[in-house]
TrEMBL record:
It comes from Lentzea pudingi. Coiled coil: none annotated. This is Amidophosphoribosyltransferase. It comes from the Bacteria. Belongs to the ComF/GntX family.
Length: 205
């Protein structure tokens, strides 16, 4: 414990309990990976939690409220899950953020998580072209149009089980656009792994 910890004790981003960035009760919101039905994506989509309650608060705490220490927690969850989505070696491809959003967050939040899952190779090859809007509040069609032709592949991806990594799946527009861009660049995406899902939790076929 550092002097700063004594002055500003850690607070759980899920419930506000003091003592740790993520308490055991809130961490329990993330369970074994569940396969989802997400039309139009292609590869299997897996999630670790529904996007509500403590799981939602933890994602928002990390993504929007500066709780960067949660990267290690999320990275550990991702690492423990990779054996479910495919055989090693694994390559994690973080879903891209808009430049302005990444700047506001002090960096690309999904890249930070991917680096913490240290059993996988990280390939930050995806980017977004200028003009992509914030997807919050957009419907399914608008989300698709927002990303159409605007996901860029910047460089090669290493071989292995390629896993697209994102924080939330809602309509599947981001995952679909990323998978399509990778495919056009000659990269096969074997699975999509998201921390949380705003979709109904029905096992995929």
């Amino acid at each position: 414990m550092t002097p700063l910890d004594l002055l500003v004790p850690a607070i759980c981003s899920g419930c506000g309990r003091s003592g740790t960035e993520c308490c055991a009760r809130c961490l329990d919101a993330f369970g074994p990976p569940t396969r989802l039905q997400v039309p139009g994506v292609g590869p299997p989509v897996w999630t670790l939690a529904a996007y509500h309650g403590a799981a939602r608060e933890l994602v928002l705490g990390f993504k929007e409220r500066g709780a960067r220490a949660l990267a290690a927690w999320f990275g550990a969850l991702v690492a423990a899950t990779l054996v479910t989505v495919g055989p090693p070696p694994w390559t994690l491809v973080p879903a891209p953020s808009r430049r302005s959003a990444a700047r506001d967050r002090g960096g690309d939040h999904m890249l930070r998580i991917a680096w913490e899952a240290d059993i996988a190779t990280v390939a930050p090859v995806l980017g977004l072209a200028p003009g992509v809007a914030d997807s919050v509040g957009l419907g399914p069609g608008a989300r698709r149009r927002n990303l159409e032709g605007r996901v860029l592949v910047r460089g090669p991806s290493p071989p292995g089980t390629t896993v697209l990594l994102d924080d939330v799946v809602t309509t599947g527009a981001t995952a679909s656009a990323c998978v399509r861009a990778l495919r056009q660049a000659g990269v096969r995406t074997n699975a999509v792994l998201v921390l949380t899902s705003a979709r109904p939790h029905r096992p995929g076929q």
